[in-house]
Amino acid sequence: MDLTLPSGRWTSIVGPNGAGKSTLLKVLAGLLAVRSGSVQLLGRDLHGWSRRERARRLAWLGQNEAAADDLCVYDLAMLGRLPHQGWMQPASPADHAAVEQALRTTQAWDWRERPLSQLSGGERQRVLLARALAVQAQVLLMDEPLANLDPPHQADWLHSVRALVAQGRTVVSVLHEISLALQADDVVIVAGGRLLHHGRAEDGATHRALEAVFDQRIAIHPVAGQWLALPRL
Amino acid sequence: MGVRFELKDAAGSQSVNWNLTPIKTGKKARALALGLFLIGGALLLLGLAVGSTGVESLRPLWSQGDAQAAMARQIVWDIRLPRTLGAWGAGALLGLAGAVAQGLFRNPLADPYLLGSASGASLGVAAALALMGGAGGMLGASGAAVAVSVYSGHWLVRLGLTGAAFVGAVVAVLLTLALARGVQHTLRLLLAGVVVGVVLGACTSMILLLSPDSLQAMQGFLLGSTGFVGWTACLLLLAVWLPCLLAAGALARALDALALGEATAHSLGLPLAWLRAALVALLALATGTAVAQTGLIAFVGLAAPHLVRAAVSVTHGRLMWLASLMGGALLAAADLLARGLLAPQELPVGVLTAVLGGGYLLWLMHRRQAAGGSL
């Protein structure tokens, strides 16, 4: 697999179940070691970065992330600032500002004092997203970030990703919802652990590759200026 | 701000009140810490007055110059004070170890004895009792009749048993680590701890079977008792407690991050292997020290962090302090009850903590279930 993800763009990774989407994302995040080959972050080998430097540049939001029920929302989002804080050092005004901004972006600011155990699945997901945003990393890797989110908050998530990309950040997300994945700038299609296609979301070739990888069981149509994947019944 | 939902039916009206008021966690945590500290102080004072005849007046202490005052002073200063303070210290260590274990294993049912330290300490004590029982004849021949029992006050016996318990606990933890091939995998660590616990427990039973003389003495250790904590043990407990608490405070943020899962903790740039090793060492030191001085005291390590969490939602940084103060207060209170409940008879404090702690946890579980939550 030879893949270069351009900076300042949003790339979606899609593919059938068990295609290796999450594995690819974990390899990109340095959470899984590669047996052969290398992963580069911002032009430098991933393992060439020190732990803290890498953590400041690369934020990760996992799938079904375990949640610390006893932490309150604000403290949890503050964990995203760990790479910026010294050991035992209290949070700086910049840390507080970053956390407030992240919580406001995901509309979780109002519950900042509530423990996570009192939140619903979708509300938790927004807090966890805020934790990843609080890192203020150049590259943001997200595995199924839209799980449990209702349509208005999915739209909000799309807006926040667009805003991040407009600031020059790089976003890479694994999404199983094809229509949402097609909102991205670029789409990477994987199947059976191999890279099948990498192209712009609006390209006909990308759409054909998507239909092919799902055994022609979906059809991609333009609706109201967006691409929509519908099941072919 | 509260939100009231009215659910009306033919039989009348029922209302569910969801309190959505934001909790001022910082203030609440500070109030709880202050409360636990004051309770600890009050228990310490009370502990000076509770003796074999129940609650006694401390007035003889200040009566001038007679033999009664000297004896009262000796009882209070040499027996009751170190014992009460030691009970608090052992409880504080167990509460702290419980909070570390639950954070490290990301499991609210984890307790400090999980890594095999308890069974290791038991085996150490059983082996020491069996050996010293064999050597008892020699001691008797030299004229010094030393009753070999965990209640024995003889310094040689105390030192030997304490040392054996500590060495046993540390060896058991090292064995667990070796079986789990390091600290990388939490689940493997947990399973290895269980295996070590069972195997060492079997070895202990074997030794007791072969030397039935030490069976009764061993029982005191297994039940847990604060009755034989003197000044040396007390100072040792407190001297280990303070650095352990400070170290736990330094590692607390890592536990917060670990609560989000290993992948996330790793992505936040934390040196996980190093942190886990430090936490396991902390756990072994705190548990080993407490067990060596007071025997196997049940439930304090498991219950203390839960009691804190039932009251406030806090980060691990605060939980360490609060669980420690809670554990101290719990064991100091249990020690008082053990002394005073059936005075002049004394109950093993471990039996009390098991009954009271277990009962309270059950009640807590029911209350949470009734409130729609989960433990």
Structure commentary:
The complex is a heterodimer of chains A (233) and B (375). With 233 residues, chain A is of the alpha/beta class. Chain A has helices at 21-29, 51-57, 73-78, 93-105, 121-134, 151-166, 178-181, 204-213; strands at 10-14, 40-41, 44-45, 58-61, 139-143, 170-174, 186-191, 194-200, 218-223, 226-231. In chain A, the strands form three sheets. In chain A, strands 4-5-6-1-7-8 form a six-stranded mixed sheet, sandwiched between helices. Chain A has a two-stranded antiparallel ribbon with strand order 2-3. Chain A has a two-stranded antiparallel sheet with strand order 9-10. In chain A, a hairpin with a 2-residue loop joins strand 9 and strand 10. The mean pLDDT of chain A is 89. With 375 residues, chain B is mainly alpha-helical. Chain B has helices spanning 25-49, 67-104, 117-141, 155-179, 186-210, 215-223, 231-258, 262-267, 272-294, 300-311, 316-340, 349-370, and strands at residues 2-9, 12-19, 50-51, 54-55. Chain B has a two-stranded antiparallel sheet. In chain B, strands 3-4 form a two-stranded antiparallel ribbon. In chain B, strand 1 (2-9) and strand 2 form a beta hairpin. Chain B is globular, with a radius of gyration of 23 Å. The relative contact order of chain B is 0.16. Chain A binds chain B through residues 26, 29-31, 51-56, 58-62, 65-68, 70-72, 75-76, 79-80, 82-83, 87-88, 111-115, 117, 128, 131, 135, and chain B through 22-25, 106, 250, 253, 256-257, 259-261, 263-264, 266-271, 309, 313-315, 319, 373.
